[in-house]
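Changelog note: in this version the structure field was regenerated for every chain. One regenerated record is shown below for reference.
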Amino acid sequence: MEILIFFINHKIIRYIFSGGMATITNILILFLLTDIIGINYIISGIVSFSISVVVSFTLQKFLTFQDNSTDNLHKKFIIFIIIAVINLIANTSLLYVFTEYFGLYYILSQIFAGAIVAFWSFFLYKIIVFKS
């Protein structure tokens, strides 16, 4: 019970959980598109990241930042998408650099890229999108 209360009361834990769910979505789709279907990992990365943005927005809005309001939902989503596009460019660039220049397996590259992008995203979402 204390763990549940801790989870509910700590935004950073909820952010990590929500981000983890979006990351799992991202990596599963990336793997499916690349290894199973045979699409280039960069294209797969763009598609999987884009799908995970919808998962991320939903979880960040309702779980992490507990923003249950539907007021300005479209504006919040547009701002979220703008940040997501910036994150997509950063994520894709990092994915490429880690894979091509550091020789990492593309899934590991995605994990590192995702962690870097997630760090600054928390502050952007908190300050810009879901400000209290």
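Spot check on this record: The helical segments are 2-9, 11-37, 41-64, 73-101, 106-129. Residues 68 and 90 are 29 Å apart (CA to CA).
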